[in-house]
Structure formats: C-alpha cells, structure tokens
Write a structure and sequence with these properties.
mainly alpha
C-alpha cells in the first residue's frame, strides 16, 4: 500500500506525470514502507507474527491516507486513482509498460515468483478466452509440482 500512497500523491500533485515518474515514486514509496515495517518489527526482536501485525497496521494506515488524499482533493474524479490501485493493464501502451518491463528484467534473478504469477495470469486470460481462469489457481497448478520437485531434490537417502 506504500506504493499506492506514492502513486496517488503523485497523480494528485502532478496529474500529467509521466509513467516513469509515477512508477519511480511508487517504487520508492514501497521500499520506504517496507523499510519502515521491517525497522519497527526489529524493535523487541524480529518475529514473523510481529512483522505481519505491523505490516497489517501500516497497510491499514496507508489505505486511510489514500482515502483521505482522494476525498480531500477531488472525490468526484477518482477513476484514475482506482485504475492505478487495481493494477489494471487494460488500455496500456508500450511506453507505459516499458518501466515495468525494465524492472522485471533487472529483478527477475531476485523476485522468480513474479514470473510465475505473470505466466499464470497470461495463461489464465488466454487458455479459455473469453472466460478466465483465476491466476491463483494456475499459480498453484504450476507451483505445486515445482515445490514437490524441490522437496524430492532435497531428500536424504535412506540408511
């Protein structure tokens, strides 16, 4: 939700901002939010429960900030904000997709899960077109055999 706060603030302050600026501000806001959640979670010892609870709290706060920004500025024209927040790729052009494509090329060796979700989403939209298969279902169908393979590969021989 940190990326959403950055993007919505940019859309409100600079309505004609380029997709590069919008994506850059969103990425910086997301990294800042991650850093905030992680640093706050470190206090008192890092535990997964604490990290999740702090993340949920920060996410709720970010959602409140987004709502406040939209309502306080132009509540009757929130379609651009909602389109950005929903993650829709409808009507996007190559120049608008370029920042995402570049980021994926750079980050692919790190964040592999993004490829799985993108592949599942693409397959889900095309296999039974015009009907769609949910990306989560295809992610499980693709990811489960890979997970089993990893488990099999790490097994120790019986003695």
């Amino acid at each position: 939700m940190g990326a959403g706060v950055g993007a919505i603030a940019t859309l409100i302050l600079l309505p004609s901002a380029s997709i590069w600026l919008l994506s850059g501000v969103a990425a910086i806001a997301a990294l800042t939010t991650f850093t905030l959640v992680y640093l706050v979670s470190l206090r008192g010892g890092l535990s997964s429960d604490r990290l999740v609870l702090i993340g949920v709290g920060v996410s709720s706060g970010a959602t409140a900030i987004i709502t406040l920004l939209i309502v306080a500025t132009d509540p009757w024209n929130l379609s651009l904000a909602m389109t950005w927040l929903s993650g829709s790729t409808y009507g996007r052009t190559l120049p608008q997709v370029a920042p995402v494509a570049i980021a994926l090329l750079i980050c692919t060796p790190l964040l592999l899960g993004a490829i799985l979700v993108s592949l599942a989403d693409s397959l889900g939209r095309t296999l039974l077109a015009p009907a769609q298969i949910p990306a989560g279902l295809l992610t499980a169908l693709i990811g489960a055999p890979y997970f089993v393979y990893l488990l099999w590969r790490t097994r120790t021989p019986a003695r």
